[in-house]
Amino acid sequence: MYQFPHLVNGGTNAFTIDPVTGTMCWDSPNMAGEFNYTIKVTEWRNGAIVGYVIRDVQLTIISGCNNDSPVLSPAPDICVVAGDPIEFTVSATDINTNVLTLTASGLPLSLNNAPAVFDDATGAGAVSSVFSWNTSCDNIKDNPYQILFSVEDNGSPQFADNVATQITIVPPQITGVSASPLGNNVSVTWDPAGCNNAEGYRIYRSTNQSLSLPVDCCSDPNLSGNGFTQIGEIFGINNTSFIDNEGLTLGLSYCYVVRAFYDIGQVESCPSDTSCARLKKEVPVITHVSVLQTNASTGIDSIMWSKPIEMDTTQYPGPYLYKVYHGLNVNNVNTFIGQTLPTSNLFDSDTSFTHFQINTSSQANYYRVELFYDSLGTSLLVGTSNNAGSIFISTIPSDNQINISWNEDVPWINTTYFIYRANNFSGPFSLIGTSTAQSFADTGLVNGSQYCYYIQSQGYYTSSSIISPILNLSQITCDSPIDNTPPCPPELFINGNCEIGENTLTWTNPNNLCADDVMSYNLYYTPIEGNEMVLIETFDNSLDTIFTHNNNGSVAGCYAVTAIDSLQYGNESDSSNIVCFDNCPSYWLPNVFSPNGDGINDLFSALVPYNYVESISIQIYNRWGAAYF
């Protein structure tokens, strides 16, 4: 039987192979001899195995050696930016002062263009040589280069030592990134990549100005973990500009980084420095869509906005007015519902509107504000705000609990939500909790009682010219908790008794383990394993957890039990585990009988007692093979 080499003769010392470098190490073999082992090298591509190769190795272990292995100095793993030089010294020593030969192998030493240099070296007792490599942009690739340094002595027997190092070549950082507002868009520009073999650029964006990305290009930038999302990709090294026009909001600052990509998109440069921009406040910015009254037909919404303080009043002279539009979908806000009174001075203009006689009970409402100026008696559009909607909450009742969730489509950033509750629609309401997510579970409630809720959101724009915090109210909604959660299932046990023909079933009471409202149980049975089970018994007491079943003397069958909660709700649990028991057939025939009419053993019949046999099929032959029946 095959054993791993280090286990032969009771050994327990380590026999390992580095899965990356392939270096095999057997720490202190304890038995001399010839050993064979096999190495399997598997090739992966994009997470899938594409092939493998197996190599057999013969290893000779001898005793009584008067030679010690030479020792190579450690070679550190290295990461540099393409174009930076690499240079370090590799040395080895031998306590036996044998003659040493130092060599190296690896892809960088055999490149056609600007290969690395390492001169073989020979010396007695100690030897060293310098590895040097003037890296270039052509050396960029998605995996590290591996260099293997080896030293071998001329002792008897000959020994060697090997050390591997990984060299990673990363692309240079993109420089000169600049973001600037351009109307309702942001223009991002940057310098061309420092390597001519760059295939293009990827642009990333975040709304968090407090982010700090690693300076070291060899560190994992983890852009997504720092709040950045890819918003664009451009091919061509000389295409060094990008217009961001996706979902930008006035009052928010947007920060950008750019990365070049190489090697068929497999390698990205480290992120550029961050450049941030904020759209100019040249149009109104909605700050509030708050529900003042909840009703299906007489509801009221309050809409408020911030003035466009960066608008050029010379280009757009007064008088000014705002028009307000309404819709039931955030992408379709086109119904004109009113306007403010004209004012000659923009700073005197009204910035609020109240929308009456609407349905705030069963739907969210969305709004948009447009600014107009007067040009020779004609009102002309200056610009429009982003669309914004009211918070709309929904409830899902559960056992002694109501789960609250809410949706919103707003251009500002909401950070905290305050949950208020009352025992009836008209209040009074009290604060019961806060949440940073758009959900909240109100627990410890009484089933069947009414509870009413509304949410107050707290948010902000990053512009200091806009009010902060921004507070808005949802509609009021009411619900009652209901026990629609079934209890956990019992655990079922069976004890079959073939002698008396009964199965004794017992099960656990979930009220003692994982439930508190189990009232009864249903017991299901099938005489044939795998067939559909039928209800055979109901137990109306939660303490009744034992039952004896007798199916006309048969003990064959399978069982399952479920738990049922209060009579008011009647939720049935999932099925318990299925338990089965089989009949214990007992049937013996005598090996001789004497049909001579003396009344003793005249008949060939089964020995009594026999059990659980419904019928038999028998054929009797004489000694010449003739069948009697």
How does this structure look, described?
There is one protein chain. By secondary structure, this protein is an all-beta fold. It has 6 domains: 5-61, no CATH class; 71-170, Immunoglobulins (Immunoglobulin-like), CATH 2.60.40; 178-278, Immunoglobulins (Immunoglobulin-like, Sandwich); 285-389, Sandwich (Immunoglobulin-like), CATH 2.60.40; 392-479, Immunoglobulins (Immunoglobulin-like, Sandwich), CATH 2.60.40; 492-581, Immunoglobulin-like (Sandwich), CATH 2.60.40.10. 0% of the residues lie in helices and 46% in strands. It has no helices and 46 strands. The strands form 13 sheets. It has a 5-stranded mixed beta sheet with strand order 6-13-12-8-10, with no helix packed on it. Strands 16, 17, 19, 20 and 21 form a 5-stranded antiparallel beta sheet that branches. Strands 24, 25, 27, 28 and 29 form a 5-stranded antiparallel beta sheet that branches. The two termini are 57 Å apart.
Strand-helix topology:
Layout: E1 15-17, E2 24-26, E3 33-45, E4 48-61, E5 71-72, E6 78-81, E7 85-93, E8 99-105, E9 117-118, E10 121-124, E11 126-134, E12 145-153, E13 160-170, E14 178-182, E15 185-189, E16 200-206, E17 229-235, E18 241-244, E19 253-262, E20 267-268, E21 275-278, E22 285-293, E23 299-306, E24 320-327, E25 335-339, E26 352-358, E27 366-375, E28 378-384, E29 388-389, E30 392-398, E31 401-407, E32 413-422, E33 430-435, E34 439-443, E35 451-460, E36 470-473, E37 477-479, E38 492-497, E39 502-507, E40 520-526, E41 534-539, E42 546-549, E43 557-564, E44 579-581, E45 586-588, E46 607-611
Parallel strand pairs: 6-13
Antiparallel strand pairs: 1-2, 3-4, 5-7, 7-11, 8-10, 8-12, 9-11, 12-13, 14-15, 15-18, 16-17, 16-19, 19-20, 19-21, 22-23, 23-26, 24-25, 24-27, 27-28, 27-29, 30-31, 31-34, 32-33, 32-35, 35-36, 35-37, 38-39, 39-42, 40-41, 40-43, 43-44, 45-46
